[in-house]
Amino acid sequence: MSVQLWTYLMVGITFTLYIGIAILSRAGSTKEFYVAGGGVSPLANGMATAADWMSAASFISMAGLISFIGFDGSVYLMGWTGGYVLLALLLAPYLRKFGKFTVPDFIGERYYSKTARIVAVLCALLVSFTYVAGQMRGVGVVFSRFLEVDINTGVIIGMIIVLFYAVLGGMKGITYTQVAQYCVLIFAFMVPAIFISIQMTGSPIPQLGMGAKGADGVYLLEKLNGLSTELGFAEYTKGTKSTLDVFAITAALMVGTAGLPHVIVRFFTVKRVRDARKSAGLALLFIAILYTTAPAVAVFARINLINTVSNQPYANMPAWFSNWEKTDLLTFEDKNGDGLIQYVAPPEINELTVDRDIMVLANPEIANLPAWVIALVAAGSLAAALSTAAGLLLVISASVSHDLIKNVFNPNISEKQELIAARLSAVGAVVVAGYFGINPPGFVAAVVALAFGLAAASIFPAIIMGIFNKKMNKEGAITGMVVGISLMLFYMLKFKFGVFDGGKAAVAGLKTQWWFGISPEGFGSMAMLINFVVSFIVNRFTAPVPEVVQEIVENIRIPSGAGKASH
Amino acid sequence: MQDKSQNARNYWKENLRCLVLLLSIWFLVSYGAGILFRSVLDQIQIAGFPLGFWFAQQGSIYFFVLLIFIYVNWMNRLDKKYGFDEE
Known about the structure:
Chain A is mostly helical and about 575 residues long. Helix content of chain A is about 70%, strand content about 0%.
């Protein structure tokens, strides 16, 4: 069977599975729509959280990115896993005890203020929308490469699928489809990794293969360092970023992860506080399987790529090379006219440009794996993109129907009307996300990374102070959120998009002006610190927290009697 | 009533102690071994891995998983000790 036929088959089977699950788990009440009725088992929630969390970026882009930047890629590995420790230890159990539906629910009640709730809603929407646009784009790319349909058609197919199960099933439908999607995506990621690890090192465990010797008796990492230096790149295990910047980016990604509304809300779906703790551990375990394999895949792919192309005649390139050339994600320009591919660091003599995003997708082809494995990777990347998109859409719809309509504009709305409003907002959110997928504002990819900075600068500090500081009042928290997120937005616009200095072209030149040498990706950690400081200062000079609210805080610190999530 | 709130306060104190200890380890294995002391640790090589690089791309993640499960067990014991456990 051809790759394409296999792909149709795998994608067809998995999509049928998702839709089947959605039909079986329709939501009948707002509680089911927002938090799956609050009775999800820790194991199911762990898997669902893992799928929710691992997006197209984790599945498709991360290993490829690490492959090209070596040690510097560690910021993503540590940043996107270490955040779960914060989530499990500092947030999940207490928010579950609090027992409401959304993050703004907590912030609104803990800070006894509608303004706080609205600020939190705006932060949640800003974070979620920037994130979801990237997912729809990922769906489009996979469709266009493997099913050879137009990218836009791909986005629309993805939209219809997500629409179907998110609108019908709400959180309940999403949870169980995410469990299935986790199984698909982890299988799809591991199979080629194990194959390639055996091929290159004889070890069936990629995590060990990465540190093993190749067929020539040289350690893979040593060989890769040698190859990289030879071609003029930085040593793979050393990296180029400054220690301070690596520190700041890792911190921003960790804290941002713990502040992402679509991840936090997953912990509202379990029954008891102890289940929330346990499912955070299981979620990280499931995530770690992919995250410890990705750096191994990066090493294998890098060595394979260099060995296949470096100083080889262009005419001898295998089929995958020309397949990807068609998509323009891989380009060769014979600058010195010798018919050989010079793949080196200096841009003036380098002849090969490889888009980092294609490494995971092309890896099985580069390693000559069978057609069904290539198809499996396509199905896996779709599972990763769709599961994350669905989780985000739910946060967006709950923000609109529950936080804005029910709690701010129209408190008298009936349960039935709220459910309709939730479904309609989900439809609206899918349409907006699809629009951004088809017409990506040139900066989507960049903004996805910055969504973490925004979450770190706004939502995370407000929740932490809400739990660990009984005396933090609404004035402090609101000012902190507003200052934090505005500062992060300003830094992003100035140093990532050059808005104040004449546009994108100016960005490279502004690098020397970075505050303390910290990149926009890492600035979230600075903005978070400033949020904390501002909150504490304002708190000192404004009215103390009412006694009732302090009692709420004392109550969420005790795990027993969590009850079901409710209004 | 007095006893009850004293009990809750003691529980919270022990909870905080657990958090401080576990988060210190969390900091050490990632920001410490993987970033700040990386070049020192890179002098040591285990199998094909420079140690600092291993912590940054593998080791820290294993520790993170371990830390959460230690936390889960620790807190479950604490819940029982103070009578806050359910079923």
